[in-house]
Amino acid sequence: MKLISTVVAALFCAHSYAGSLPLTPHLYVQGNAHMQVQPDQAVIRVAITQKSKALPEAKTTVDDIMANAIAIAKSHHIRVDDIHAEQLNVYRQTRYNRTTNQEEFEGFRVSRTLTLTLKKLEDYPVLLQKLVDAGINEFNNTQFEVSNRSTLMKDLNKAAIKDAKLAAKELASDFEVKLDGLYSVSFSPMETPRTPYARAESMKLMDASSGNVEQAYNTGALTLNAKVYAVYTIDN
Question: By CB distance 3.0 to 4.6 Å, which of 14, 47, 62, 177 could disulfide with 138?
Fold first, then answer.
């Protein structure tokens, strides 16, 4: 994965737009960092829906298909903790008859949803086909993720902080002023009407891989982002 950072910054004088900014001359900088990673796990959400006027028959069909789907998941080494089968949902369906002006019973709609966390992405297409063959008839969505996201975000935050420091030094040098000290830091933007200053160059901080998925299902890269905002007072 490639980690690239860019930075935007703005120079402000004594007048502040928000209480979080000092009344003395200061620099307001933003450090950005982002990395592209290949996902190494997938959260798959599927369901089985059956319609029938006989509720016991529909329930039995749905439960049997769900049991087969869970067995298939286990055969692909999905842990029990990563298999979540929801309880049975039953809806009574009716249709309005305009001729008789009455609601007519059409049957019961019985459904169950299943959420799986697949750690071997190379099994993804095969697993989907097996679920279809088992009778699963709804595929809600699949979310591709990285299992070590929290660790990566910690690294990104550190990179964004480093980038903000570099921005403050660069901007202070351009305006021939000296940094006096750090006034405040936030991971949310501070309200200001000013247009940010953007550094001309970005810096590459690391080149690594989040997981071994060379033969995995082609999911495309994910982009993780981190931002930090800092205010430095200046001595001019």
Answer: 47
Q: How many CA atoms lie within 13 A of 195 on its CB side?
A: 1
CA Rg value for the chain: 28
Q: 221 pLDDT band (50/70/90 cuts)?
A: confident
Three-class secondary structure assignment of 108-172: EEEEEEEEEEECCHHHHHHHHHHHHHHCCCEEEEEEEECCCHHHHHHHHHHHHHHHHHHHHHHHH
Show the DSSP H helices in the chain as ranges: 55-75, 124-134, 149-174
User: pLDDT at position 116, please?
Assistant: 98
Looking at this protein, which amino acid is placed at residue 89? N
Query: Which has the closest alpha carbon to 30: 174, 202, 231, 176?
Result: 231
pLDDT reading at 198 higher than 70: no
Q: Which two tokens stand for residue 229?
A: 């905002």
- End-to-end Cα distance, the chain: 41
Q: Beta strand pairing status for 89-97 and 83-85?
A: unpaired
CA dihedral 57, 110, 81, 40 (to 10 degrees): 120
Q: How much is the pTM?
A: 0.72
Structural tokens at position 16:
């502040």
- What residues are paired with 206 via a beta bridge? 3
Residues 219 and 215: their CA atoms lie apart, in Å, by 11
**Residue 69 φ then ψ, to 5°:** -65, -40
- In whole angstroms, give the CA distance from residue 150 to residue 90: 38
